[in-house]
Design goal:
Shape: globular
Number of strands: 35
CATH superfamily: TonB-dependent receptor, beta-barrel domain
Number of domains: 1
Helix content: under 10%
Radius of gyration: 27 Å
Distance between the termini: 25 Å
């Protein structure tokens, strides 16, 4: 397969590329049985991980993803080679992303994708910020034809039903170009892997006259509805000039449960006071309440450009893009107890909006040098980017401190306080960049490359990064490749300027606690030691061996090391100093900081074997990743914050692999896949410190069978996790009713059965 990511030179195959690149075709994605792009990729790419997080604020509705376990904000997302806008979500302190940002790749319809190129190598010198761990370039379909797909899936326990419908149609505009339109609808029911909370059992025993729900709250995947549409168009204005544009729009609406409030122990909400004579929350919620957290997200990206030739050896591409991600938060079935009987039960918590504007100019020149058999490829260009982050305040009742607060009644909407007027605002950051990228063929065996990028940010200053690569062909079919590079990740306007409030349940005391995350520029944060954020910096080195044979066997082995300095994290939590105003009732506060350094080492192994078997064709694919991160050193706050070290070192498996076999014979297609995940560590946030649990290795078997009825109609049925396997139970979370960890690197809902009908013409 010809790839374009990681090299701006002449077209290359996966084996010829100077850097490791994985290719996922549309057919590969369809075989996963998953109804979102991020989950499908997690089944196929060795160093790609995504974590499903039930009942975890907004993270429940937007799963964190990462390459080489380096977090969602260190993998750059491109669509047709153009930067994808980031999501407005800043992952909370209780999520695997902890304070990071990333793009919403689940917003891209799977059937709109022609292929995905995953560059597993540092590429900031080529593409800019966020490319420390690699680049995911999603290529949209641009060919003629129509495809309509209808799918249904459900877990073996009878819940989590998902109904999916997608359509794509494309037209060839003769010699003038092409137009492709696509749309997708998805509706997923909630799952529940829940046991009744012990305190709910005790509450029922103490109040036999009441009918306490069993369970009192649900742990599992959220109820989620999504709609996605888009287009991809190319038009030839002349023999040397092409106009192109594409657009993507996604709308999703989800609901998730929060922790149950026990009337006998939640004194901050159920307290009676003379301030509100005759008012008692038991009259409204006699058996307690579990707030319902809503999330409505709209994601839009529009890109347009021109490309052509000045001469046959000098090509150019000029483009502009606009991206916007907005998330509206709501809370139902809740209360602001400090307002007493004046409190509503439903709240608008506010809106987060991330807006990006990009302008790019790229040039490619084939420089003929007499001493070389092939031309030197010289790429150069520039980019202007503006990011704007906006916080809109929620209902005043969602963050109000009412008169009852003086008597100990909790302020804010219970479960998720809204964004207050003091937290609202708008902040922007601009950057300008220039780069040069050269590839030099030194005969038939050697080729070398070099890239450099200068970028200046309005918020903190400039960076200069470089990359060197080399490839040596030992034989025509066996080659060594290696790279060394520097990289960076810029702090975002959200990380630089915003604050947030979260509530959690202490699993020891079963009391609700409220934590605040402050901006590094906040006076209180600075009093506690916060300093202005600066970019993370990286140094990456990799060495690989690639091969292919006439027997159908091909593959690669790549070892790598990534050193990251000044990594972003959240500081240790601090108590509010005595005498400091604390209107939101924070139990503790922390802030974003450039906290410590890490070294990540690992190896990727990818292998493919293709051969005839009987009357059919067999394909075997191996994908394996070993990845280990070590915290090297850090600030005083990190030295006292064991949680941050554990999260960076042990929260994801060091080993992950899959072996997939498929056999196509006549109209039938059979697939079997074994997935393996190594041991990992989970943590649970508590008011007085986190507690940990180690989970052992897990393996899963997936099976599927497809049948092509005729050239237009086909069916596919399958099951992921055929043997309905579950990990160890999360013992430290039993007090809140959770059965399996909400931070597992795999689905913990058991076997998933699916069927899919496809019509093509």
């Amino acid at each position: 397969t010809i790839v374009s990511t990681g090299s701006r030179g002449s077209q290359r195959t996966v084996v010829d590329a100077p850097v490791p690149v994985d290719i996922l075709s549309a057919k590969d994605l369809n075989k996963s049985g998953q109804n979102s792009l991020d989950k499908a990729m997690g089944f196929r790419v060795p160093s790609f991980n995504t974590v499903q997080t039930p009942v975890n604020d907004a993270t429940s509705l937007l799963d964190p993803y990462e390459i080489r376990n380096l977090g969602p904000s260190r993998a750059l997302i491109l669509i047709n080679g153009k930067r994808k806008n980031a999501s407005a979500l800043v992952y909370t302190q209780t999520s695997p992303g902890r304070g990071e940002t990333g793009s919403d790749i689940s917003a891209i319809p799977a059937d709109a994708i022609k292929r995905i190129e995953v560059l597993r190598d540092g590429a900031s010198a080529q593409y800019g910020s966020d490319a420390i761990a690699g680049v995911i370039n999603i290529i949209l379909e641009d060919g003629p034809g129509t495809e309509i797909t209808a799918g249904y899936s459900q877990y073996a326990q009878g819940d989590g039903a998902s109904r999916d419908f997608s359509a794509r149609t494309g037209w060839s505009l003769g010699d003038y170009g092409s137009l492709v339109l696509f749309a997708e609808l998805s509706n997923s029911d909630a799952t529940s892997r829940t046991r009744q909370r012990p305190d709910a059992i005790a509450f029922q025993a103490a109040h036999p006259e009441l009918d306490v729900p069993n369970p009192v709250q649900r742990w599992g995947q959220p109820e989620l509805e999504s709609r996605r549409v888009g287009f991809n168009v190319k038009a030839n204005a002349s023999e040397t000039l092409e106009l192109y544009a594409f657009g993507l729009y996604s709308h999703s609406d989800g609901v998730s449960d929060f922790n149950w409030r026990n009337p006998d122990t939640t004194t901050g909400a159920y307290r009676t006071t003379s301030i509100f004579p005759g008012w008692n929350l038991r009259s409204l919620y006699p058996v307690g309440f579990s707030p319902q957290y809503g999330n409505v997200q709209n994601d839009l990206q529009l890109v347009g450009g021109l490309r052509g030739e000045i001469t046959p050896k000098l090509r150019w591409d000029v483009s502009a893009s606009y991206g916007r991600n907005a998330i509206d938060y709501s809370l139902k079935n809740s209360i602001n107890a400090s307002l007493g009987p004046a409190s509503p039960t439903d709240f608008d918590l506010g809106r987060l909006t991330q807006t990006e504007k990009n302008a790019n100019a790229d040039f490619n020149y084939e420089w003929e040098v007499g001493a070389l058999s092939k031309p030197i490829n010289v790429a150069f260009g520039g980019e202007f980017r503006q990011e704007t982050y906006q916080v809109r305040a929620g209902d005043s009742a969602s963050y109000a401190v009412g008169p009852g607060a003086a008597a100990g009644l909790e302020a804010n909407s219970n479960g998720a306080p809204g964004f207050s007027a003091s937290q609202a605002g708008q902040w922007s950051q601009r950057s300008k960049a220039a780069y040069v990228d050269m590839e030099v063929p030194l005969g038939e065996r050697w080729s070398i490359g070099a890239a450099s990028r200068y970028e200046d940010f309005s918020s903190f200053g400039s960076t200069l990064d470089g990359k060197l690569s080399a490839r040596f062909a030992i034989t025509p079919d066996v080659a060594l490749r290696g790279t060394v590079s520097s990289g960076f990740r810029a702090p975002t306007p959200a990380q630089l300027n915003t604050t947030s409030t979260t509530q959690g349940l202490d699993t020891r005391t079963l009391q609700i606690f409220t934590s605040g995350r402050l901006s590094p520029n906040d006076p209180l944060a600075q009093l506690l030691g916060a300093k202005p954020l600066k970019p993370e910096e990286s140094r990456t080195a990799s060495l690989g061996l690639t091969w292919r044979t006439d027997l159908g066997l091909s593959g690669s082995v790549d070892v790598y090391q990534i050193k990251l300095t000044d990594r972003f994290s959240q500081s240790a939590s601090f108590a509010i100093p005595a005498g400091t105003p604390n209107p939101l009732g924070y139990t503790s506060v922390n802030y974003f900081t450039n906290d410590f350094d890490t070294t990540t080492t690992g190896v990727d192994v990818v292998g493919n074997y293709l051969r005839d078997l009987g009357a059919g064709r067999m394909t075997l694919t191996l994908a394996y990743n070993y990845n280990r991160t070590h915290v090297d050193n850090g600030s005083t706050s990190v030295a006292t914050n064991e949680t941050q070290r554990v999260l960076f070192e042990d929260r994801l498996p060091e080993h992950k692999g899959s072996l997939t076999g498929s056999w196509d014979i006549g109209a039938w297609s059979l697939m079997a896949r074994m997935r393996y995940y190594g041991a990992w560590t989970d943590s649970s946030g508590n008011a007085v410190g986190d507690i940990y649990q180690r989970f052992g290795a897990m393996s899963f078997l997936d099976l599927a069978v497809g049948y092509r009825i005729n050239e237009h109609h086909s069916l596919r049925v399958g099951a992921d996790n055929v043997f309905d396997r579950y990990p160890d139970k999360a013992t430290f979370q039993a007090s809140r009713g959770l059965v399996y960890s909400r931070n597992a690197p795999y689905d913990t809902d058991g076997a998933n059965l699916y069927a899919q009908y496809r019509l093509t013409f």
